[in-house]
Design goal:
Rossmann fold, 7-stranded parallel sheet, alpha/beta
């Protein structure tokens, strides 16, 4: 059965300071959507507003911030909310044994708890109006786990599970839910992850402290270019647009060759072989 038409092209897009969120905000606006982008920092909000967006402050790690953002958004869209794009997230690189409770909590507060709280706060409005689209940016790491990013993978596995369950729970409401599963995308994400690792993981008493310091320094200097493997954030924006606009949005959108390969490996490669392949990513 085809999904009902979205009657108002109004959308909240989280995490728009750079990368996928920023590209999505501009792409959707260029294709006729009224976009309310969010960011945490005032300088990012100021930049978005200067470019003509009605930007909303939102920190997914703060429940009060989530509730303020929802209240403000609903005041701005009295005729209905067409969609929600859950894009904001953080990555906390590091070995699982080096993740203390605070680091794990920060990883899940943003990627899982904050994202789900925001979604749940908007679902009643979408239910009442009888239409709407929820699009959540997950990762190929929500399907396959890798060493040195275990906490991030765990958060994305949780996002996938919650998304799958909620999609079924919303059957018959006129609301669809799609998961976006990118692989390597050219953005500031890796540099931001390095900063998060320095702030939350690196201490002198963790096992891989020296490796983390070297990796953080390398990521800060690294500027990947768009190629066959590393794709631009606009590639993700196009899939998000399809999930918002299509009469038959997909449940999942896999983006980049490595993501397709990773999904195949997770389903069909024996675990023993997969472990040997993944072990190549361990620090020497």
């Amino acid at each position: 059965m085809k999904a009902p038409e979205v009657k108002k092209r109004t959308v909240l897009v989280t995490g728009c300071s750079s990368g996928i969120g920023e590209a999505t905000a501009y792409f959707l606006r260029d294709h006729g959507w009224t976009v309310f982008p969010t960011a945490r920092k005032e300088e990012d909000l100021a930049k978005l507003r200067k470019d003509g967006f009605d930007a909303i402050e939102l920190d997914l790690g703060d429940s009060a911030s989530v509730q303020r953002a929802v209240k403000l958004l609903l005041e701005k869209v009295p005729e209905g909310l067409g969609g929600l794009v859950n894009n904001a997230g953080v990555a906390m690189p590091g070995a699982v044994e080096d993740m203390n409770r605070d680091a794990l909590r920060r990883q899940f507060e943003v990627n899982v708890f904050g994202t789900q709280e925001l979604t749940n706060a908007l679902v009643p409005t979408l239910r009442e109006q009888g239409w709407g689209r929820i699009v959540t940016v997950s990762s190929i790491y929500g399907l396959i786990a890798a060493p040195m990013v275990g906490a991030y993978c765990a958060s994305k596995f949780a996002v996938e599970a919650l998304g799958d369950a909620q999609r079924v729970e919303l059957t018959g409401t006129g609301i669809t839910l799609s998961l976006i599963e990118p692989g390597p995308i050219v953005s500031a994400f890796r540099r931001n992850a390095a900063a998060a690792m320095e702030e939350n993981v690196i201490t002198d008493d963790v096992r891989y402290a020296d490796s983390y310091k070297k990796e953080a320094a390398r990521r800060k200097k690294q500027f990947k270019k768009v190629d066959f493997i590393n794709r631009p954030p606009e590639d993700v924006a196009r899939k998000i647009f399809h999930a918002l606009e299509s009469s038959s949005p997909r449940r999942r959108y896999v983006i980049t060759l490595p993501a397709h390969l990773g999904g195949f490996m997770a389903r069909f490669v024996p675990q023993a072989l997969l472990d040997r392949v993944m072990a190549r990513g361990l620090p020497q």
